[in-house]
Amino acid sequence: MIHFSDLKSQYLSLKGEIDIAVQRVLASGWFILGDEVRAFEEEFASYVGAAHGIGVGSGTEALHLALVACGVNPGDEVLTVSHTAVATVVAIELTGARPVFVDIDARSYTMDPSQLEDKIGPATKAILPVHLYGQMADMDPILAIAQEHGLKVVEDAAQAHGAEYKGRKAGSLGDVGCFSFYPTKNLGAYGDGGLVVTSDSTLAEQVALLRQYGWADRYVSSVKGLNSRLDELQAAILRVKLHHLEEWNAIRRKHAALYDELLRDAAVVTPYHAEYGKHCYHIYAVRSQRRDELKTYLRERGVGALLHYPVPVHLQEAYADLGVGPGALPVTERCAEEVVTLPVAPELSEDQIREVSSLVREFEYEKGLV
């Protein structure tokens, strides 16, 4: 079996370091918002190139708290994309604001800046671009439009740990950057976790208040907050893994380059690597006219191919109240029908990448696609 991700193998490769970190926390007797969280906040913010890091309970909560800190209120609108994990939209709706969808670029699968300005209205408060699959959105035009209209920019960098845009790391370009440490991310915890980065000290202070009941002093709330805290165990584990992130991303890029070479003349569309950035290949997403059949073919032969994301958020039953029907976002809808994702985790071998590529070729030959 070629797993989509192999977290057990990853743990075993780091077992000594991880076990020491966990034992250090257990021996300390301190499990919430202690030295490990403070150290990881500083280390990850420094890695990203931001002044402040605030550890929170999940990537969804990172987005939610960042939006609230940026002044997004009930009745406001936030511009984002529909080709994303539903968590992006959940976070917007948790603020009481309304998501307004912008179509994506057909090559990068990220927000199309040329479609952005037409979506801005009197209720628009923020823009939430998603750096999808490990590729960053084209940030310069997004930031320029935001500045022109006085809007905040919150980066959803949940799939972009270590990705770059013109030499700057994901999360460092907007007013706020938001990360998830779900176990399968490029930098993953052993449970849920998230983090907000910013170089704006006022926003950092506000997020820090919001994550713990709005307490400036213990048991005294200066603002209405909630409970969203990264715990000490996860922070200690993430500190260990952060030292390996660049190496892991380099292996992902090497795997992706091999896929690109082996699938160069195949019927699938391989990922576009935008010239403005550095892809970190959280996911290796290809497009196929026979996507569902290809996924089934691969899985029947022991390859953990997956679909990210088969139904755009605006076409899901839970979000029918947004009133965005079929045909409203043509590029998004077309991509959602064609994308299938191949294993690219750093634990995979070159031989496994070759085997997956060979199976894709066999499928296309059997179906008469090439």
Describe it.
The protein has 370 residues and is α/β, with parallel strands linked by helices. The chain has helices at residues 7-13, 15-28, 35-48, 59-69, 87-94, 139-149, 201-210, 232-242, 245-262, 291-300, 330-338, 350-366; strands spanning 52-56, 77-80, 98-101, 124-127, 152-156, 164-165, 168-169, 176-180, 194-198, 215-217, 220-221, 277-278, 284-287, 339-342. A seven-stranded mixed beta sheet has the order 1-9-8-5-4-2-3, sandwiched between helices. Strand 4, helix 6 and strand 5 form a beta-alpha-beta unit. Helix 2 (15-28) runs antiparallel to helix 8 (232-242). The relative contact order is 0.16. The mean pLDDT is 97.
- Name the strands of the widest sheet in spatial order: 1-9-8-5-4-2-3
Gyration radius, rounded: 21 Å
**Which stretches of 5+ consecutive residues score pLDDT under 50?**
none
Total beta strands: 14
Q: Give the SSE order as H and E letters.
A: HHHEHEHEEHEEEEEHEEHHEEHHEH
Q: State the end-to-end CA separation.
A: 26 Å
Overall form: globular
**Biggest sheet layout:** 7 strands, mixed
Bin the strand percentage.
5-15%
Mean pLDDT: 97
How many helical elements?
12
Structural class: alpha/beta
| Percent of residues in helices | 25-40%
